[in-house]
Specification:
Elements: H1 3-11, H2 22-39, H3 50-71, H4 77-106, H5 109-123, H6 127-133, H7 149-170, H8 175-199, H9 201-206, H10 212-223, H11 225-232, H12 236-252, H13 265-276, H14 285-290, H15 293-300, H16 302-318, H17 325-351, H18 358-382, H19 403-406, E1 423-425, E2 433-437, H20 439-443, H21 445-455, E3 458-463, E4 473-477, H22 484-502, E5 506-510, E6 523-527, H23 537-550, E7 554-558, H24 567-578, E8 586-587, H25 597-604, E9 609-611, H26 614-617, E10 618-619, E11 622-624, E12 626-627, E13 630-631, H27 642-656
Parallel strand pairs: 2-3, 2-5, 5-7, 7-9
Antiparallel strand pairs: 1-3, 4-6, 8-11, 10-11, 12-13
Helix pairs in contact: 2-3, 2-15, 2-16, 3-7, 3-10, 3-13, 4-5, 4-16, 4-17, 4-18, 5-6, 5-18, 6-7, 8-10, 10-13, 12-13, 16-17, 21-27
């Protein structure tokens, strides 16, 4: 057994850190409040750092327990996991039961299927991997009631690896070797975390290897707390500095920060400083504040509060409830009340069960509920989310009625010339023209199909998400950078579709222009030489139009919808339709026509044909988001759904005729 660990533990047997620390519950309160306020939309842009506070606390407490038991030769994996099951699973299954019932009533079929899959993943500690493979934390995840379980999954994975690693370290007698091993693990995780935070943020944010260093900071505090207490002599100023670091991180960071990586160090070190300040005494100002009854109580219910807050907020928004200040406060109060019930009637009673038998705890508290939930999830998926419940009333919002699903072979596959698979209008051996652009062009496919059929022409649609119709360029997500092979493929594809379009009679262009605006910081357009050309994007688009016209190609520009109305508005309209209520909300255009890129192109090149579907949707600067009783947007509130695009096309054709005739 490692002599350094043994020596350290023996010297710390009487320290306060080996007993209950009320101030740590206070620290938990700060952590959960930061997360809740952040998710509720209050001005705490970096409130997500509350999770990092939890990680450091967990690393410290778990390691302190493991260290003591290893030294006293009382550690067993069975007893360790019995405690983890009693601590985590009953409260989680209570939440899961409630959210499953609620979701079963209100979620759309596709969302219900996703919920079932995420619930299953969470039960085996892999929800972080599930969300990484799907939406990502900062992506389109607002409809996922269990998104927040990613952090619990990270801790559960830590519970699998850390006891084994700590046991292995305990059998190394060399003090220096242990220190080097621990330092190497921490540094490797930190370096990898920062690299991925800069280049692949979703991976850095959600996966254990890139969060391991945060848990390790807490673990090192437990392993070397006597040395820390002796060398640093922490006290009130130490704790106050730590609290400042935590709060400052919450207000100085935001979603665009390259986080975690080195930007997670201030909050992690700050948390460690607060914990360390109580090694010698907890009787000083900073910790006394954390030990006050209201603060400590929030800390005690923090696990249940964390569990409940996100589903309450997410499902409320899903039903169209806007997160105004009043609504957010009410929803937080509801989540807190639910967490108090969970803590007193579920979490505490089960945690205090005396039996230590693994089977008597694991089977009823984990295995049986998990099997029941998995059976329920299987039933949901098997029955296609019980799609028949809502019938055709809101069918336009289902994934099957979106162009990126219906025409998945025509978007982001980087193929040009696959006419048989990807054509709109009539069917003939060769295309009369191309529809090019990004995902918004794909969303307009059914609109173009209506006009092309009426005009008796064939249009080949070849689109790619976040890819403007400009040759030799690609868009780089600066938080999740593409490898060279990928961005070269996109740039070459853009050039290929440009060259093919130049050989045809006409080209129809549709882009989400604001996505490539000069003020964009996260998504930047680069050329095939990896140069950032975002500040020249308008000139590049003009040059592309000029080349088409010089080649004798007739250019058609499709104007984007009047605005992005957002998910909450789509959810609200969905709820109104389900109640058979009248939908009469109108919206203001996001910008005047003179500021729209499409109209700038028309002004610069008068021979360009401009098709503005908003003429069907807007009157006197008041625009509607439905046509013939159908909601026109997808669930994201940005792209048109396939039914909406078709309805707009039919209405446009009826009112304004067909500008594609004769082209």
């Amino acid at each position: 057994m490692s002599m350094i660990i043994k020596h350290a533990i023996n010297r710390e047997r009487t320290s306060l850190a080996s007993g209950y620390r009320a101030d740590i519950d206070g620290l938990r309160a700060i952590a959960v409040l930061l997360v809740v306020l952040y998710h509720a939309g209050f001005p705490v842009p970096g409130g997500f750092v509350g999770v990092d506070v939890f990680f450091v606390i967990s690393g410290y407490l778990i390691t302190a327990i493991l260290r003591r038991e290893i030294l006293e030769r009382t550690f067993t994996f069975r007893s360790f996991y019995v405690r983890r099951i009693k601590r985590l699973m009953p409260a989680y299954f209570f939440l899961l039961a409630c959210t499953t019932i609620y979701s079963g009533v209100y979620l759309l079929p596709d969302d219900m299927i996703s919920y079932a899959k995420s619930a299953t993943a969470s039960l085996i500690g892999l929800s972080n991997v599930y969300f990484f493979m799907g939406t990502g934390y900062f992506g389109n995840a607002a409809n996922e009631p269990l998104l927040h379980t990613w952090s619990i999954a990270v801790e559960e994975q830590f519970y699998l690896f850390w006891p084994v690693l700590l046991l292995a370290l305990s059998w190394i007698d060399s003090k220096r070797a242990v220190r080097y091993a621990v330092a190497a693990i921490l540094i490797a995780s930190l370096v990898a975390s920062h690299y991925y935070a800069v280049n692949h943020k979703n991976a850095a944010y959600l996966l254990l290897p890139f969060r391991f260093f945060e848990l390790m900071i807490g673990a090192l505090l437990a392993l070397y707390q006597h040395r820390v207490a002796k060398v640093a002599n922490p006290g009130s100023n130490f704790a106050l500095t730590g609290l400042v670091l935590i709060v400052a991180s919450a207000f100085l960071l935001d979603n665009s920060s390259a986080f975690p990586g080195i930007y997670a160090l201030p909050v992690c070190v700050g948390t460690a400083m607060v914990i360390a300040s109580g090694f010698s005494s907890t009787n000083h100002v900073a910790l006394n504040i954390l030990k006050t009854t209201p603060v400590r109580y929030i800390g005690k219910v923090s696990y249940s509060f964390y569990l409940w807050h996100w589903p309450v907020l997410a499902l409320a928004q899903y039903r169209g409830i806007e997160l105004t200040t009043e609504n957010a406060l009410l929803l937080i109060a509801i989540a807190f009340l639910a967490s108090c019930i969970s803590y007193h009637f579920i979490e505490s009673p089960f945690r205090n069960i005396k039996t230590k038998s693994f089977a008597s705890i694991a089977i009823p508290l984990y295995v049986v509920p998990s099997l029941l939930m998995c059976a329920g999830a299987y039933t949901i998926v098997k029955n296609d989310g019980f799609r028949s419940r809502s019938g055709e009333l809101i069918s336009e919002l289902e994934d099957r009625n979106t162009s990126h699903i219906q025409r998945s072979q025509c978007i982001s596959v980087m193929i040009v010339g696959n006419y048989e698979e990807c054509h709109l209008g009539i069917d003939r051996p060769d295309a009369d023209g191309l529809l090019v652009g990004d995902s918004f062009a794909n969303a307009y496919a059914q609109f173009v199909d209506v006009l092309a059929r009426d005009a008796g022409i064939m249009i080949h649609d070849t689109t790619a998400g976040s890819t403007p119709a400009i040759p030799d360029v690609f868009t780089m997500d600066m938080m999740n950078k593409l490898p060279e092979s990928e961005w070269r493929k996109i740039a070459d594809y853009n050039t290929s579709r440009f060259e093919l379009a130049k050989s045809k009679r006409l080209v129809i262009i549709s882009n989400f222009w604001n996505n490539y605006a000069t003020w964009q910081t996260r998504f930047r357009v680069h050329n095939g030489s990896l140069e950032d050309v975002n500040d020249r994007i308008e000139d590049l688009q003009y040059d592309t139009i000029r080349q088409y016209l010089e080649a004798g190609v007739k250019v058609v520009i499709l104007v984007q919808p009047f605005a992005e109305i957002g998910k909450t508005e789509v959810n609200r309209m969905r709820e109104e339709k389900l109640r058979h209520a009248l939908i009469d909300e109108t919206y203001n255009p996001v910008q005047p026509d003179s500021d729209r890129m499409e109209y700038k192109i028309k002004e610069k090149f008068p021979q360009v044909v401009l098709i503005d579907p908003n003429k069907v949707l807007c009157e006197d600067q008041k625009c509607k988001a439905f046509v013939d009783g159908k909601i026109i947007f997808r669930n994201d509130g940005s792209h048109l759904n396939a039914v909406g695009a078709e309805k707009i096309g039919e209405a446009y054709l009826k009112r304004f005729g067909n500008p594609l005739v004769g082209m």
